[in-house]
Structure formats: C-alpha cells, structure tokens
Specification:
This protein is of the alpha+beta class. It is built from 11 helices and 7 strands. Helices cover 69% and strands 10% of the residues. The chain has a 5-stranded mixed beta sheet with strand order 2-4-5-7-6, with helices on one face. The chain is flat and about 130 Å long.
Length: 473
C-alpha cells in the first residue's frame, strides 16, 4: 500500500513538472520569436526609410548625408540584433541573405563619396533601387519566416495547455479515488491488527533496563487496553533517556577535567625550566661567607627567564578570556608595517630575508588594530621559528572586490607543516615545536573571528607553510 501511494504521488509530481517544463519551453520559444520579429520589423522599417531619402531633395547635400549616415548606423545595429536572435538553421540562412544584400548595398554606398557632385542624385536613385530590389525583399522573406514561427509556437502552446488541462483533470479525479481505496484498505488492516495486538509490558520494561531487544507482540487485545501499556513503555523510555543524558554530562565533565590537566601540564612544563635556572643562579649567588651577590650577567638571565614566565602566563590569560574587539576604522598597512619593524631585528640575526608586497594606497578597515597586530606578530614569529638557519618570508596584502575584503598571506620557505599537525592546526595545545604551548594559532583564530575575519593554514606546492587570513572591508 505504501509503495502504491508513493508511486501515485511520484507520478503526479513528475507529470506536473513535465507539463510545466514543456509549457515554459514553449513560452520561451514564443518570447524569442516575438523579440526576433520585432527586430526584423525595425530593420525593415529603417531600410524602407532610406529609400525616400535617397530619391528625395538633394539641394542640402550635407544635411542629407548626415541623415543617411544616421539611418545606416541604426540599420547596422538592428542587423546585429537580428543576428543575435537567429536560433534555427533556416532563420540563420535568411539572416545571412539579408546581411549579404546589405553588404552589397554598403559597398556601393562607400563609393558615393567619390562621385561628382552633379551625379549624386542619380547615384542615390540607383542606391534606392538596389534597396528596393535586393535588400528589402530579403528582409520581407525573413519577416515572413518569423511570422510563421510565431504561428507554430502558438499552436504548440495550445496543445501543451490542452495536455496540462487533461493532466490536471486526471490528477484531480484519480488521486481522490486512489486515496479512498488505499485508505479503506489501510483501515481494514488496522482493524484486524488492533484485535491481534498485545504487549508484554513488564517484560518490555525489564528489557529496556538491560538491553534493547525487539518487543514481542502477540495475543489478542483491544485499543482501550493498548493505550495504558504504551504509556508505560513511553515512561520507561524517558527514564532511559534521562540516564543517557546523565552519562553524557559525566563524559563531558571528564573531558573538561582532562583539558584542565593538559593545561596544568603545559604550565608546569613551561614554567619549570625558567624556575630551575633562576633557582640555580640564586643558589650560586648565596654561596660563600659573606655571599658575593649576583653578577650582571646572571641578573640578565634571571630577568630573561622571568619574562619567559610572564609571557607564558599572559598566553594563558589571552586564551582564557574571550577577546573583546574595539573596532575602529584604520589603515591595515600601518599595522602590517609596525609588525614587520618589530621582527626585523630577529630576522636579521637569523639571516632571514623578509619581503613584503603591499598595495600603493591605504587599506581602510573596521578592525581592532592591536588584536590584528598580535595576529601578525604571532604568524611572523612562527615563520621565524621555522627558519632557524636563514630563509625567506614573503608577506602579501591585497584587496578583493567581490566580496569586498582584505587578504593577508604569509609564506615562509621552511619545512612546512607536519601532516598530523595540519589536520588539527588551530586546536589548543597542538604544536609542532619542541617548546611552546600550542596556543598561538588558536588565539589568532579567535582574534580574527572577533574582527569578522577568518584564517587558514596549508603547505605551499613550492614548499614551506602558508597562512592566509581575511578581514571584511
């Protein structure tokens, strides 16, 4: 029964779509034919207007020539339009005949400027005769053909409308009858099933508590006894779902605790080494009687290690707090040049060549300049980390028109991104470096999203890593 219903519905839908498609196609052809015949008529009218001008008064030669040139330009434009509407082989052939006859007239017209002034009237009458005997008959043949095409399209459209009418009538009458038959059949089967349905509710509830196996339906019963049994099954299923939700919450809590443990392990790893260095230097300074104190070199090391710890803690703070962008209109190139100036000293020490390709004019965006500066510095420092023994970094800024946005691309000549890291590039605590927390790219992604942008990372075909981020303009 279900298959029969689906077949009936599918047949009705497909039939309706088929008839609608036929009607739309005929309407399209009819519209094209109407446009074509209008273009043909305009061309015929323009050429017909040339004939009395050529045979008319030649006392004002310059005015006549200007008027004829205007009509010629109009005829050339209309001929191009007629060619564009030609969509059948026969119509294209007739348009070709019109174009050839016009070309013959045009060749003769171009020789008009070389004729003596006293013979222009006679020469123009010959041109008018050529239009009457050559060009206008070709236009008339084309017009007759397109008129016939409109008649054929109209007849085809009438046949489609007749088919559509009969099809709708068949659907309107056949569908209710088929529905009545199918409904009567379904009602009969349901009536028989109600008397044969009985549910072992206690056994079903017990199985829901342990494992989900098929519920056995057997015996005889009526609908009034079936309803309370189904209500009991529904209540038991709700209890099972509640237990499942409780387990999901426990799993989520376990994942959160695991993430906290991973954060703690990262903090411990990053802070242990600086603390060890500081402790050893302080212990060395306390040796002797009296202690000699710490030299300036050791104090510099202690300051450096303390700064490392501060940077580590600041990274976690940046990751923990949601970014609040204070966006205002400013030039992106100013932010880019400031980031390049900041890393140029390290790049010079590592013998890394930094090339920039920037637009000549300003790139005005609505952004938080400090956050975008942090993103640029993170990406440039990552590129420098990948080039410890020298190389090249190429930074490019360009503007896309559709949709309007600014695109920043940073490409380094390093070894690229390892495949296991590439799939999880912007996840927290994922890093391909021996030292590092793996939070820089995750923080950069969040900052860009706060400014309405996005970021991608991939390996370039020519080698090295490429990071591209966009900002809406």
């Amino acid at each position: 029964m279900l298959a029969g219903s689906l077949l009936l519905v599918t047949t009705c839908i497909l039939g309706a779509f088929y008839l609608n498609a036929l009607h739309q196609e005929v309407s399209r052809v009819l519209t094209e034919n109407v446009a074509s015949i209008v273009a043909d008529k305009d061309l015929d009218t323009t050429i017909d207007e040339l004939v009395p001008l050529l045979r008319g008064d030649h006392s004002r030669g310059e005015v006549l020539t200007a008027e004829l040139s205007k009509r010629h330009d109009k005829a050339n434009e209309q001929l191009m339009k007629v060619r564009g509407y030609a969509n059948t082989d026969e119509e294209k052939e007739r348009v070709h005949q019109v174009a050839e006859s016009w070309a013959r007239y045009w060749n003769k017209w171009t020789n008009r400027s070389h004729q003596p002034a006293g013979t222009l009237a006679k020469y123009d009458r010959e041109l008018a005769q050529q239009l009457d005997e050559d060009v206008l008959p070709s236009c008339s043949h084309l017009l007759e053909y397109n008129t016939g095409q409109i008649s054929e399209s109209d007849q085809t459209n009438r046949r489609i409308v007749d088919r559509l009418t009969w099809g709708l009538l068949a659907v309107g009458v056949g569908a209710p009858l088929a529905g009545l038959l199918l409904g009567y059949s379904v009602a009969q089967r349901m009536h028989q099933s109600i008397y044969q349905l009985s549910v072992r509710i206690r056994d079903a509830a017990g199985r829901l508590n342990s494992e989900l196996r098929p519920v056995t339906l057997e015996g005889n019963g009526d609908q009034s006894a079936l309803n309370p049994q189904m209500q009991s099954i529904t209540e038991e299923i709700e209890r099972v779902f509640q237990r499942l939700h409780q387990r999901e919450r426990e799993v989520l809590r376990a994942e959160q605790l695991a993430a906290v443990g991973q954060v703690a392990a990262g903090v411990a790893h990053e802070l242990r080494n600086p603390l060890t260095s500081v402790k050893m230097l302080v212990q060395t300074g306390m040796e002797g009687d009296p202690p000699p104190g710490l030299p300036s070199e050791d104090l510099a090391i202690i300051e450096h290690e303390v700064r490392r710890m501060e940077a580590c803690i600041q990274t976690f703070l940046d990751f923990a707090r949601p970014p609040g962008a204070e966006r205002r209109r400013m030039d992106l190139l100013i932010v880019v040049r400031r980031a390049l100036t900041l890393i140029e000293g390290r790049a010079r020490r590592q013998k890394v060549v930094v090339k920039s390709e920037l637009p000549p004019g300003p790139v005005e965006l609505l952004i938080d300049g400090e956050q975008i500066h942090q993103v640029l510095v993170n990406l440039l420092l990552n590129a420098l980390d990948a080039l410890p023994h020298g190389g090249e970094i190429h930074l490019e800024v360009r503007q896309a028109v559709d949709p309007a946005r600014a695109i920043v691309r940073i490409h380094d000549s390093g070894p690229g991104i390892a495949a296991p890291i590439l799939a999880r590039l912007f996840e927290p605590f994922v890093s391909g470096k021996e030292t590092g927390l793996g939070l820089g790219l995750s923080i950069s992604q969040r900052l860009l999203e706060a400014n309405g942008g996005s970021i991608t990372g991939e390996n370039a075909a020519e080698g090295g890593a490429v990071f591209t981020f966009t900002l809406p303009a």
